[in-house]
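PROTEIN FOLDING TASK:
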Amino acid sequence: MKNKKNHLALALAGAMFMMTPAAYAADVSLQDAINRALAENTGLKVTQKGEDSAKYKLEKAKIQNGVAPAVTGELNAEKKDSGATDASGKLAATVSIPIYSGGKNQATIKQAKIGVQSADLQTERERENLKLNVIKAYYNALEAKKTVGVRQETVDKYKEHYNNVNQLYSAGAKARIDVIRSSVELSNAQQNLIKAENNYEVDLATLRNYMNMDRTEPLNLTSDFSYDVFGIDMNDCIDYAYKNRKDLLVDQYKLEQQEQAIKAAKAGYLPSLKVSLGLDQTEKYKPSSSSSHGASAGVGLSWNIFDGGLTRAEVKSAKTDYDIARLNLLKDKEDIDLSVRQAYYSMREAEKRFNSTKDAVNQAEQDYYIAREKYRAGEGLMLDIIDAQEALSTARLNQISAQYDYARYKATVENAMGIGLNASETAAAGDLENDVDATLSQSSIAERAGDTAEALRAAEQKQAERDGETK
């Protein structure tokens, strides 16, 4: 358990929880969101626990396959028919030292060491994936917020238009059908606004979940889209991924573990040799007192000449697992190639859309203004205004979508390449609280959800009652 957070974590906490007087919302930049998630996310804590598990497995392997000391004690008391009592005690210490195991002990320990390295890489990859998820959630929320703005503006324009049509209808300049049509379009626009507002709240909830913060905390997202040119060729991205993807390195470690498993299995064909040493002390208490001690030493050689084909089967099984590991490594290389290409193509497509929407919004605004003024002058049709407003909304939404699609896909390309964390992110990840008791005691979700074991007992009781009623 970490008792102290470094200065980065303190600065992050201040940024997250300092409320602005106007909005009472925490100002959160994209970097703040990433750092907080890396320092607080529960899923990441679960993955990081795998590092501890791997270390203990290595510790266990060293004990089981190394020098094995043992201390035993005995205390005996026996009452005879004559009424006399015999009482004695014995204390013995032994140590067994493996001299030769056919390579099995060394291979088993090597497997466990590789497991520790693999667990570290798995945590690193999980951090990179969490970073990507936070980036996507952050940009999703920004896009949703801007979509709400577009939908709200559309509603406002339809309200204004509805009022104008009503005035013209009252003056006898427009037909009743125009009033009805404008009312319907206003209602449709309001429906789209309601959906957009809900999407925004859902996206904020997702972001809060990744950051593991108060689920009702108001947020003010201070970062926004900025167009950064991605100048790396796709083939270079793929080559970089082959060398830097942590999960691919994990696959290589798994392959090396299977190589050690084959060595351990083949050790069954070979003899094993160990030396044992022992000391013992025996004390007799009744009916008379006496003491004796002894020492022992021995060399044990064992060789299973015939085991009914067990070793052969174990070797074949280990070789099969090795082949599976080789194929998994190849498959993941293929998957990485595909994931980089998909993200890269999608990023370039979004980039083209972004560049093509720059003039579309201005043109749509001019078209809407012309259609509205012509209608007011009695020269245009209601359909012209509806079409122009729809085109304007679509142009603005297309521009927003292209911007954030580019930002998300650019982050996805970098993740697919295996680009690691920056300095501040690495520091934040180092502040992850890995003590389970502390995590549970600090969790508002755990407090609100209550005792799950109690809920389980209640569910079992209800099921038992239902089962009793059916009998």
Notes: Residues 104-170 form the longest helix (67 residues). The two ends are 52 Å apart (CA to CA). The beta strands are 26-28, 68-79, 85-100, 219-221, 272-286, 290-302. Residues 12-66+125-269+313-449 form a domain with the Outer membrane efflux proteins (OEP) fold (CATH 1.20.1600.10).
